[in-house]
């Protein structure tokens, strides 16, 4: 399969999957928020974010497997891949044991950490125990994702995730609409569905690599060092990601209160759900760029980066403009009957507006970060992200503690990562490392998407002036017209001629 077809297949499958997953979240969130209320929903979110920090004990190995398996496959070095596989599994089993030990130490302090009321102290401990078990058991199974990514089967990963997400949605609705659900049951459903999905991914991955068998003699010191070298930088990036999302949510939970947690976690979740639409193109580049790097093909790496970031912007900018102008209306339609008051919805809308602008301009640089990882410059990205995220978390804590901004302070701190790494530093770092002229890079990557952004902003300003949003039909018309206009701008302004012809040809072929 050609490179363009592989990338298109992976991206489209991810988009389809995420559309359905977002639809599931749109259904589940108001159901759970109405059923539990702000405090219990906030407790669920806070415990989930806290337990997620245990994922750091994979030492970043999960993100290293795809690169090494793909690189060795170029030279048909299957013996080396056996050593990578066996060594990875050994590390993950060790990580599972270590995580179990750490979670047992932390467990007694969970009520104190989250300052839970007396009625929820035992519940908070049970929740943390179940969600920790979910991570512990899944550790060895995470090898499967790396093996599938090495084969560029991101589409298969998306399909499996989609299937089990639908199962999760059905189970949650079944129990909670019948009024027999509680936080413990929700955690048990989450544990069961997540583990089943990881098992299926692992078993399917082994079918693509039938020669791989776990053997103790394949566990080597050399592979430990290689995996930890790349894995350590991935671990730093994982720590950065945890601090940047989950750390900020925990800061809100601990400093403002569990009832305030949904007011930031829901906007954060909205951005995270949008992320794969923007990031998927770039996040598939690690094995592709690894093969290009193995052949020392700098010209193709340049082309991969330019188109990866540009087309990421093609997706992120329309979404960002729409949420900036119409976030409040969407939140009212979605969560207006869940017990949140108008001030809650207004604060959430402000948070979305603050977060979506740097996200829209910065998130497409995922393509650049993937290429840096694939070309042995992973530590540059890891250190840069850690610095920016640490600055954002410190800013969040200061703004919450010493100002009245509340969750808006968290939104400002959250934005630091995109502002520093992806908007200010990454474009210049790419130009330097891939030997691209800066003016050429900006004209090729940023000018067409920014022009489309200007058109959409003007359209939104005019539409807001003359249209009454109290009428739901006007809002449906807005979404339709905005979507059509965005598609036309992407097709005729952002896509280059060659890719436009390829896409149109692909659409016509599929119709036939």
Description:
The protein is an all-alpha fold. The protein is 83% helix and 0% strand. It is built from 20 helices and no strands. The protein has helices spanning 3-52, 65-74, 78-106, 110-114, 121-138, 143-150, 154-177, 183-208, 221-255, 261-283, 285-294, 298-335, 342-362, 366-374, 378-402, 407-433, 438-445, 447-466, 472-494, 497-511. The two termini are 20 Å apart. The mean pLDDT is 84.
β-strand percent reads under 5%
Distance between the termini: 20 Å
Q: What form results from the Cα inertia axes?
A: globular
Order of helices and strands: HHHHHHHHHHHHHHHHHHHH
Q: What's the total count of β strands?
A: 0
| Helix content, binned percent | over 70%
Q: Over all CA atoms, what is the radius of gyration?
A: 23 Å
Number of helices: 20
Structural class: mainly alpha
Low-confidence stretches: none
**Major sheet summary line:** none
Rounded mean pLDDT score: 84
Outline the secondary-structure elements.
Elements: H1 3-52, H2 65-74, H3 78-106, H4 110-114, H5 121-138, H6 143-150, H7 154-177, H8 183-208, H9 221-255, H10 261-283, H11 285-294, H12 298-335, H13 342-362, H14 366-374, H15 378-402, H16 407-433, H17 438-445, H18 447-466, H19 472-494, H20 497-511
Helix pairs in contact: 1-5, 1-7, 1-9, 1-10, 2-3, 2-6, 2-11, 3-5, 5-8, 6-8, 7-8, 9-10, 9-15, 9-16, 10-12, 10-13, 10-14, 11-12, 11-14, 12-13, 12-14, 12-18, 12-19, 13-16, 14-15, 14-16, 15-16, 18-19
